[in-house]
Design a protein that fits this description.
This protein has about 625 residues and is an all-alpha fold. The chain has a domain at about 395-485. It is globular.
């Protein structure tokens, strides 16, 4: 531990942090002793940005640790933040290969330097400020969660905290820390058992969490019952700091309960019944649906129960949006749920109304069009096949300020597009959602070029756009409608040879079909490109142009998997109809995993990409090799 008077004895200019020279560190550390809390805040912000930048540490971090430890004892404010800065600095994986002097890495040096300060900071466990005590508990626990030794006296002081601290959350923290650093494991288990039978909910909750972390799923019902009863209310205050290697209590709860969907949904339902405080029950249910397949009926039921508990329209809209995500997978939505959605669809809050309407549309409820409200753009995108939607869709297309326009256009079928040609042509002319419009126009019956004489002219003008993707989409559509592929081939040759993102243009080359054969040399070269998206798009385009799967299928089979590019490759194989025998074990995993395999997308996609993944894998498995 070093006082600020020794700062000038360090050659900070010879050391580095995230932004280069560490010459600014001494003044930042001196500012921690200010009586101006705002100045301390600013110094902390800067230190979190340079000596600990987004989880990384630097040579200057090692030099700063003893000074930060001194400030944690003597600063007039924000001492809990200084203690937690030391915790997160030490909470780093140590690389196997040394990266500094050949004997230890910067990460290891930081951890060892922080560990050396911990015994000197144990007096903070008795600080009058609860936040300081909670942060000090996490610092004392570093020896159990990390690789450093347990500091002498830590177990005794934490035991005293557990036995007598007046703040329940501090006692719960001490129990958690002791579970990881007490060398007497039998004593630790007895302590937890006593806590489970004790009268303090926060301490019972901590004990149950420790038990669940040891047991793993499926969880013992008695411990799940403790979480349901004692976990409904969020940790009060803003000092639920993360334990090194464990995270915050909220993170631990979420991770544990998401790992066991049966237990997680039972707890989510209990938390919702207790008021869904902080949205914790409904967020948990939504997270389970994002993690596990085929849980949508239970999740929608929990979310519907949570609707009356929401404190404001933003929270209400978020729960309705979650229902809209999952309700398509509910075979027969409950009549009460549908009635709730109809009621919210008629509300004056636009976000609430749009979310409820979208949920109605996604479960096939005609009230999304026939209710006493103007249908939202998202709801219309779900109902484009309904003839009653044509009038409202036309109004949306004419409204330049409509949000969600691109999603609506992407949902239109060629038959519907033919009835909306004047509006679509005007959108392309004025460059509103121009790329999906240009692509959609290429799907309509080619007699449209006669009935709408402006169509080819507008597409031709778009072929000269500075937007390369618009040029490609317009060129492919113009070729199909005009029956003259030469201009499109010329545009696409230039883009495939010198464009910025070749995987954007390859699908448009594929749309030319056999007429795109002059592009085959460029397409074949891109079958071996370094980028996975480019190889996938080249394989798909090659098959579309030649009709021969021999070159495309091996490339696509290699790329298939639970990723965005892997999903697209899988769907291309479905379109081709080819199932390499060696791909079947992977397909079985993709089709029958109980867990969702595709990563969560944001904003959430409908349908969930994992549903598309499973559907494509099942379709391929149903076909002979």
């Amino acid at each position: 531990m070093r006082p600020p008077g020794e700062l000038d004895s360090v050659d900070w200019s010879a050391s580095t942090h995230a932004y280069g020279s560490a010459e600014d560190v001494p003044e930042l550390i001196r500012a921690l002793y200010s009586t101006d809390v705002e100045q301390i805040d600013e110094a902390l912000y800067e230190l979190y940005g340079n000596v600990h930048h987004q989880g990384s540490v630097y040579p200057a971090t090692v030099a700063a640790v003893p000074f930060l430890a001194h400030a944690a004892l003597h600063s007039v404010a924000k001492r809990e933040q200084l203690l937690m800065l030391l915790v997160v600095m030490a909470d780093q994986p140590v690389p196997e290969t040394p990266v500094t002097d050949g004997t230890r890495s910067v990460t290891q040096a930081v951890r060892e330097t922080v560990a050396a300060q911990v015994p000197l900071l144990l007096p903070c466990l008795g600080d009058p400020d609860r936040a300081v005590r909670r942060a000090a508990v996490r610092l004392a626990a570093l020896g159990g969660v990390g690789a450093e030794p347990v500091p002498p006296g830590a177990v005794r002081q934490l035991t005293d905290l557990f036995d007598s601290d007046p703040v329940a959350e501090v006692r719960a923290d001490a129990l958690t820390a002791l579970a990881h650093i007490d060398p007497d494991t039998e004593a630790a288990r007895r302590r937890e058992a006593a806590a489970l039978d004790g009268p303090v909910p926060a301490v019972r909750l901590a004990a149950a969490l420790l038990g669940l972390e040891r047991s793993g799923p499926p969880y013992p019902s008695d411990l799940v019952a403790v979480l349901a009863a004692d976990g409904a209310e969020p940790d009060p205050g803003e000092d639920d700091f993360p334990f090194a290697g464990l995270g915050t209590q909220e993170q631990r709860l979420t991770d544990l309960l998401t790992a066991d969907p049966h237990a997680g949904l039972a707890v989510a339902e209990a938390w919702v019944a207790e008021g869904d405080l902080g949205g914790r029950g409904s967020w948990l249910a939504d997270g389970i649906a994002d993690t596990w397949r085929d849980r949508e009926p239970q999740v929608v039921a929990v979310l519907a129960e949570a609707l009356p508990q929401q404190r404001d329209n933003d929270a209400l809209a978020m729960r309705l949006e979650a229902i809209a995500r999952w309700i398509p997978r509910v075979r027969e939505p409950d009549a009460d749920v549908r009635a709730i959605l109809v009621r919210h669809a008629a509300t004056t809050d636009p976000r609430v109304s749009a979310a409820a309407q979208t949920a109605l549309a996604r479960c096939g409820n005609p009230r999304a069009l026939t209710g006493s409200f103007e249908p939202s753009v998202k709801a219309l995108a779900e109902l484009t096949a309904d003839h009653r939607a044509l009038g409202p869709i036309r109004q949306v297309l004419r409204n330049a300020d409509s949000s969600g326009l691109t999603a609506l256009i992407s949902a239109l079928t060629p038959a519907t597009a033919e009835q909306l040609l004047p509006e679509l042509i005007e959108l392309l002319r004025t460059r509103r959602s121009a790329i999906p419009v240009a692509r959609l126009l290429g799907t309509v019956d080619d007699t449209a070029a006669v009935t709408e004489p402006d169509l080819l002219d507008v597409l031709a003008a778009a072929m000269n756009s500075t937007d390369e993707m618009l040029r490609a989409a317009s060129a492919a559509s113009h070729a199909r409608l005009s029956k003259d592929p030469a201009p499109a081939v010329q545009v696409l040759e230039l883009l495939l040879s010198g464009g910025k993102q070749k995987h954007w243009y390859l699908p448009e080359a594929g749309r030319l079909g056999a007429a795109g054969s002059p592009l085959l040399p460029a397409v074949e070269q891109l079958l071996h490109a370094p980028g996975a998206w480019t190889r996938m798009a080249a394989a798909e385009a090659h098959w579309s142009i030649t009709g021969d799967p021999e070159r495309a299928v091996p490339v696509l089979a290699e790329l298939t998997g639970a990723s965005p590019v892997g999903l697209r490759a899988l769907e291309a194989l479905v379109e081709i109809g080819a199932v390499p025998e060696e791909l079947r074990p992977r397909l079985r995993h993709l089709a029958w995993s109980p867990l969702r395999l595709m990563p969560v997308a944001w904003p959430p996609e409908i349908p969930h990409p994992d549903e598309r993944l499973r559907a494509a894998a099942l379709r391929l498995l149903s076909r002979p090799s």
